[in-house]
């Protein structure tokens, strides 16, 4: 059964949302999605809810937020690290694609500002026997990627800085974005080193906020709106938990495998020509470069040139993260759902930073120690080609 996105809503993201309670933040996103779709909460048949409990510092936030999004309807809890947002989206999608429901909402909420220290939480993503004692977290893994890529392909710190410049310029026009700064390459290079070679302005923030996406069956989608975003294909993949099993940090092999599978299912032969815009999960500058290469938008070793040459800017040949991306907004458990929702808005023609003529969009999220990936292709048409 064909399934489409008919509504998307998100909150304003900040370091700490002290103005509202957890359920109130959830309802802010839910209400926005319902208004976008022209629906009421009573119309929703089921809810897929996503959150990373440790980042909130509370247990089972879905029990609290149920008052804001489910009205005693069937509700599934999703928690898969950095991929939580996209996994929640795909769970909602599958509930409609299976024929079980006609209208399902994905809701993700995260209040990282409530967490005393996110680093110990991130540390649990690495192998508990051989690696956890070293204190490794997400930024350390990204620094491994950066140093490996720079050594193998000759990338410079300036190459990485261009990614930051591009994302921050995009975020300036996004009213929901957390970090809004007009940067130049020198500003990025002069920011303090956080984990060499990555600098502060090459690293994502921790954000409070929520997002909601409404999925509808084919017949219902056509009745709700005349420009739904159709889910053409989706996939997930998991790699080894142990970092020592990685063949190389200079390439993202598991993502490349998932990408090939996704494009085969979607009928995409050349992603450069067939995809108009991408919302990639790149909380650190190096990761956008690796993701673009793994997904076939650039040859290995050439991804470092795309931002510098303007290819990934909004008016370039491969617009990437026109929303400002994870580098500027990161409500961890909801981040992937924001990527999915922003991709849907692009093919609906309703994004704040709209890419001219965008008909096919790619959404992506990763989690864990680089080993989890979720991907989806959305289109203004039910089928490509």
Tertiary shape: globular
Averaged pLDDT, please? 94
Helix share of residues?
25-40%
Distance between the termini: 18 Å
- What structural class results from the helix and strand content? alpha/beta
- Strand elements, count: 11
What value does the Rg take, in angstroms? 19 Å
CATH architecture title of the largest domain: 3-Layer(aba) Sandwich
CATH topology-level name of the largest domain: Peroxisomal Thiolase, Chain A, domain 1
In order across it, which strands form the biggest sheet? 3-2-4-7-1-8-11-10-9
Account of the protein in words:
This protein has 2 domains: 3-116 and 206-224, Thiolase/Chalcone synthase (Peroxisomal Thiolase, Chain A, domain 1), CATH 3.40.47.10; 139-205 and 231-379, Thiolase/Chalcone synthase (Peroxisomal Thiolase, Chain A, domain 1), CATH 3.40.47.10. It is 36% helix and 18% strand. The protein has helices at residues 22-37, 53-56, 61-69, 84-97, 118-123, 138-153, 157-171, 185-190, 218-224, 253-266, 271-274, 285-294, 332-348; strands at residues 3-10, 46-50, 75-78, 103-111, 193-195, 198-199, 208-217, 229-238, 277-279, 360-367, 372-379. A hairpin with a 2-residue loop joins strand 5 (193-195) and strand 6. The two termini are 18 Å apart.
């Amino acid at each position: 059964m064909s399934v489409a996105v008919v509504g998307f809503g998100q909150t304003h993201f900040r370091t700490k949302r002290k103005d509202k309670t957890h359920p109130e933040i959830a309802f802010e996103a839910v209400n926005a999605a319902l208004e976008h779709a022209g629906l009421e909460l009573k119309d929703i048949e089921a809810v897929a809810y996503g959150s990373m409990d440790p980042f909130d510092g509370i247990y089972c936030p879905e029990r609290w937020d149920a008052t804001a999004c489910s009205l005693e309807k069937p509700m599934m809890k999703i928690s898969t690290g950095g991929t939580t947002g996209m996994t929640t989206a795909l769970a909602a999608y599958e509930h409609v694609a299976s024929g079980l429901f006609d209208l399902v909402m994905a809701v993700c909420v995260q209040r990282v500002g409530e967490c005393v220290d996110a680093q110990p939480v991130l540390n649990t993503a690495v192998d508990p026997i051989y690696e956890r004692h070293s204190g490794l977290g997400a930024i350390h893994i990204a620094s491994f990627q950066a140093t490996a890529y720079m050594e193998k392909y000759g990338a410079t710190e300036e190459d990485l800085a261009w990614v930051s410049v591009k994302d921050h310029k995009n975020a300036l026009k996004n009213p929901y974005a957390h970090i809004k700064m007009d940067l130049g390459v020198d500003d990025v290079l002069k920011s303090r080193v956080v984990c060499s070679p990555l600098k502060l302005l090459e690293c994502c923030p921790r954000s409070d906020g929520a997002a909601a996406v409404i999925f509808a069956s084919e017949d219902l989608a056509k009745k709700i709106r005349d420009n739904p975003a159709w889910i053409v294909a989706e996939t997930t993949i998991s790699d080894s938990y142990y970092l020592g099993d990685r063949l190389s940090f200079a390439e993202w092999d598991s993502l490349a495998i998932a990408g090939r599978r996704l494009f085969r299912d979607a009928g995409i032969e050349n992603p450069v020509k067939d995809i108009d815009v991408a919302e990639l999960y790149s909380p650190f500058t190096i990761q956008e470069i690796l993701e673009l290469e793994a997904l076939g938008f650039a040859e290995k070793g050439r991804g470092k040139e795309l931002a510098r040459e303007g290819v990934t800017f909004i008016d370039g040949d491969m617009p990437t993260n026109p929303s400002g991306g994870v580098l500027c907004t990161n409500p961890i458990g909801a981040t992937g759902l924001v990527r999915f929702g922003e991709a849907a808005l692009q093919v609906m023609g309703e994004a704040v930073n709209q890419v001219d003529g965008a008909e096919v969009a790619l959404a992506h999220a990763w989690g864990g120690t680089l080993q989890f990936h979720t991907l989806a292709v959305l289109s203004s048409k039910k089928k490509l080609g």
